[in-house]
UniProtKB/TrEMBL annotation:
Keywords: ATP-binding, Nucleotide-binding, Transport. Residues 248-260 have a biased composition (Basic and acidic residues). Gene3D superfamilies: P-loop containing nucleotide triphosphate hydrolases. This is ATP-binding cassette domain-containing protein. The keyword Nucleotide-binding applies. The keyword Transferase does not apply. It comes from the Bacteria. The lineage of its organism: Bacteria, Bacillati, Actinomycetota, Actinomycetes, Micrococcales. PANTHER family: METAL TRANSPORT SYSTEM ATP-BINDING PROTEIN TM_0124-RELATED. SUPFAM superfamilies: P-loop containing nucleoside triphosphate hydrolases (SSF52540). It comes from Georgenia yuyongxinii.
Length: 274
């Protein structure tokens, strides 16, 4: 069943004066006694699709968490749509965020429609408005799960649960979508469905920041890659090509871990494996 009730997004470019969806300046994050991010300068303009890449522990999740205010900023600043993320001015209704490795079920029996509808609730709105059901169905349709709307998410596969959570972020029709490892641990069919969803969103002008371990199914979608190593940006530009043989069946995807890599002895071409 295809439900096509979502409202078309205007396609015209934002005014030249519009604040960038994401901007950081000299951003540093300290967790415990460790400096996790150092001097991050990053601007993402409206409509861009940016991959945030890097080895395990390089700071990717910490960076997106600092953008959505989940971890404190030690130095510098981060802004969403021109509003400092530590202020009350952030237009959260314009932002969708799906954290890493969160299941939709959470031990609570709920249907996919209920989980997605909850995305329309927030601090000041604890009751759903008219039209919420149609919007939730449309968001489920965007991730290819409209026909499973009334099924309990506890019976869904990991990939389907991930798609429900993405639908929960999409139901508010965010202008900025931040996804942390959306492809991790999901089956190939779900990956392809997700790639299709994100391609549609890009066509509608949604700005996307996607944390990825490797480009994989999203290689054709990503326009720009920001690569972190040891909490610093070491590349910001064209997406890298996959390492030779990385896509081959049987490749074991062994990746260097930041904690294990010794900067003094690392070979020059052991940059970040994706
Ligand atoms: N709450 C915390 N307290 C102390 N250190 C932390 C905390 N959270 C994360 N770290 C450390 O910060 C570093 C960066 O972690 P982060 O999760 O941002 O990396 P990542 O690039 O997203 O890795 P992965 O690809 O494995 O998800 C790691 O060394 C991690 O152990």
């Amino acid at each position: 069943m295809r439900v096509t009730t979502h409202r078309p997004r205007p396609t015209q470019a934002p005014p030249a004066t519009a604040a960038a969806p994401v901007r950081t300046h000299d951003l540093s994050v300290v967790l415990g006694s460790s400096t996790i991010l150092r001097g991050i300068d990053l601007t993402i303009s409206a409509g861009e699709t940016v991959a945030l890449l890097g080895a395990n522990g390089s700071g990717k999740s910490t960076l997106v968490k600092s953008l959505v205010g989940v971890v404190p900023i030690a130095n510098g600043r981060a802004e969403l749509f021109g509003a400092d993320v530590t202020s009350r001015r952030v237009p959260w209704a314009r932002v969708g965020y799906v954290p890493q490795r969160l299941t939709a079920a959470g031990g609570v029996p709920a249907t996919a429609l209920e989980v997605v509808s909850s995305g329309l609730l927030h601090g000041r709105r604890l009751r759903l408005r008219g039209g919420a059901r149609a919007r939730a169905l449309a968001a489920l349709d965007q991730v290819g799960l409209a026909d499973r709307a009334h099924d309990g998410v506890h019976v869904f596969s990991g990939g389907q649960q991930q798609r429900v959570l993405i639908a929960r972020a999409l139901v508010r029709e965010p202008e900025l979508l931040i996804l942390d490892e959306p492809l991790a641990g999901i089956d190939r069919r779900s990956k392809e469905a997700l790639a299709g969803t994100l391609t549609d969103l890009r066509a509608r002008g949604t700005t996307m920041l996607i944390v990825l371990h490797e480009l994989g199914e999203l290689a054709g979608l990503v326009q720009r890659a920001v690569v972190l190593r040891h909490g610093r940006v070491v590349h910001d530009g064209a997406p890298p090509r996959a390492a030779q043989g990385h896509d081959a069946a049987g490749h074991d995807h062994v990746h260097a871990h930041e904690d294990q890599a010794d900067p003094g002895t690392r070979s020059p071409d052991l940059k970040v494996e994706w």
